[in-house]
Amino acid sequence: MPTKKRTTNHDADPPAHDGVGAGGETHQRAGGDSPVMTSAHGVPIEDDNNSLRAGERGPTLMSDHAFREKLFHFDHERIPERVVHARGYGAHGVFECHESLADITRASIFASAGKKTETFVRFSTVAGNLGSFDLARDVRGFATKFYTDEGNWDLVGNNIPVFFIQDAVKFPDLVHAVKEEPDRGFPQAQSAHDTFWDFASLMPESTHMTLWQMSDRAIPRSFRMMEGFGVHTFRFINDAGDSSFVKFHWKPVLGMQSVVWNEAVKINGADPDFHRRDLFDAITVGDFPQWELGVQVFDDAFADEFDFDVLDATKLIPEEIIPVRTVGTMTLNRLVDNVFAEVEQVAFMTQNVPPGIDFSNDPLLQGRNFSYLDTQLKRLGSTNFSQLPVNAPRCPVAHFQRDGHMQMSPQPGRAAYEPNSFSGEYRGPREVGAQGQQPFPDEVEGQTRRVRSASFADHYSQARQFYVSQTPVEQEHIVLAYTFELGKCEIPAIRSRMIANLRNVDEDLAAGVAAGLRMPLPEASVPAAEPIRDLPPSPALSILANAKETFAGRKLGLLVGDGADAAAVKRLRKAVTKAGGICEVVAKAVGGATLSDDSLLEATQAVAGAPSVLYDAIAVLTGPDGGAVLADEPAARDFLTDAFNHYKVIGLGGATDALVAAAGLSDKLDAACLGLDTAKDNTAFLSRIAGPRQWDRDLDA
Ligand code: HDE
């Protein structure tokens, strides 16, 4: 992997700030490379350090327009944050189509193999506010804007293929339940509190989604290592007007990885920006994240015979029944220039679909199609938000919509209406019939009623299928997660009601949670529909069963003590880089460590600021002196103990005994604690870190 650094253009030794204004000649250049500072209206600024005063120590004057403009703009810098998915991070990219899908969709993005379309992606957590932390146990948003040549397509998905509710009318309730409790303003960015589980336990349709949310899917290692899903059933429509149903999937090329809960809790303290930093760093060094776009395409006949309603967003279609066909690759290859302008102002809307893609009658999707347009006006304050660079289509835009706040376009033409009898430049655009976006001519029948179809009623069978598709380690994590979250509920009846629902999913799961909480097992709740008990496991649903043997895109924390063997350090760093990973040097002080050959190895992090939770695996290399020094350093001891408790692979080279003993691990080292003294050790270590964590490690020993 390249190890290019992002240019900082940093002046290491700028002139000291003396509070005296620039003054003097300012018309073209202020000095060096700096352009002249101006007001928002282009007037050069005389002095950006002192406001205009009447007398040297007198009052500030209203006539200081430059000062007033600066404060005025600052006072209005904030816009309302998103009501959900407030905390996010994004990047630009490109989607490349692998094969023509013209037989099933007329969407131009899928017209031919090799066709490229610009994209912008925003990843997010759901519940937390803009300033919350990245490793919340939460669903991740995975929203993609494709700037197609027939208009924008926004695939506004999540990293979990199902949702909490079936009807959009319950969305405000769900969000109010999961957000901070209104009478106290906490807890922030988490579902581990009474109101969320009160709602979830009273809404059995959310059970399947809570299984996913309590699984390791909700604590991903990286945005780059999680799947994405369009969730709803959509429609493809081809040139002949034929339609098929389609579900969209994103599969990360690096494979899926998650962290463990105790690690997530600590990452939030050590680096609340863990996920955004990870994306930033990867793109900066040219290790561009990639996902394959996949589709599950099916027809009405399948929809009619499937055990569940394909319009129900609390259900998925197992890949073993309808395989995911890979149709293209997205590569994120460009960071934003300005987070506010792009990540905050990007406006995703489910209703943005180009010709060839259409909606199904999923009641959740139908509700979203109202909500997203509405919310953008609230957030961005003008109907012209579509003109912001990140939102603007890359294809021509022509209509008779006019004016409004912040109109950027000097729209030409005399007639701003249709029909008109002008010609040429005055005439304006006209609709194009067959070329335009045509709704699928769906047959609609039945009475106008507020009703939930009986075909949506089985809330437990797929929840159970998800659970039985997990490896034992993953099942244990789910039990622990429910136990943790329900343990944060103060009201025992809420815990009990949730466990009563879980009994309809899996008796061992319910019993495990009840035991974890030290509560009696309640009676099972009465399901709305008798669950289908015998759905077969779907292996595609497990993260661990599908893990890739690779260290690519991951990070080794190399703790180096004074006197460490210079050759061993060099060998390890080279091998990790060759494997596509990053080797970050950590030392007692950020200034670095002195190696056996007396060279100074600079560190990226001091160990006190770089706990091992920031790394996928760790290694310690030290000489006799350094080992003892590190043993005296609490953060160095925790570095080792935490890595061990998080089942990580550990490499130990040189005189590490004192540190290992101080970390309390002398008698515990197991098969995933490997030596690092020889080239052969190095190879074995590299191959081991490409594999899974040491899940069967005995933490009680
Ligand atoms: Fe959203 N959702 N949502 N949602 N959603 C928003 O739009 C909404 C749902 C998702 O990075 C809001 O611009 C309703 C499902 C993502 O900018 C809002 C319903 C899925 C993002 C909104 C849902 C999502 C949002 C808030 C129930 C996965 C972040 C700010 C019917 C398929 C997009 C905004 C970004 C954002 C409404 C349910 C994904 C209020 C009414 C299901 C990834 O419009």
UniProtKB/TrEMBL annotation:
GO cellular component: cytosol
Signal peptide: none
Highest taxon of the lineage: Bacteria
Pfam families: Catalase, Catalase-rel, Catalase_C
Region Disordered, residue ranges: 1-57, 404-445
Necessary cofactors: heme
Listed Gene3D superfamilies: 1.20.1370.20, 3.40.50.880, Catalase core domain (2.40.180.10)
Keywords noted in UniProt: Heme, Hydrogen peroxide, Iron, Metal-binding, Oxidoreductase, Peroxidase
EC number per UniProt: 1.11.1.6
Reactions accelerated catalytically: 2 H2O2 = O2 + 2 H2O
Catalase core domain: residues covered: 38-426
GO biological process: hydrogen peroxide catabolic process; response to oxidative stress
Active-site residues per Swiss-Prot or TrEMBL entry: 85, 158
Residues that, per the record, bind heme: 82, 122, 171, 368, 372, 379
One MF term in the entry's GO annotations: heme binding
Protein purpose: Decomposes hydrogen peroxide into water and oxygen; serves to protect cells from the toxic effects of hydrogen peroxide.
Family recorded in the similarity comment: Belongs to the catalase family. HPII subfamily.
Protein name in the entry: Catalase
Originating species: Janibacter indicus
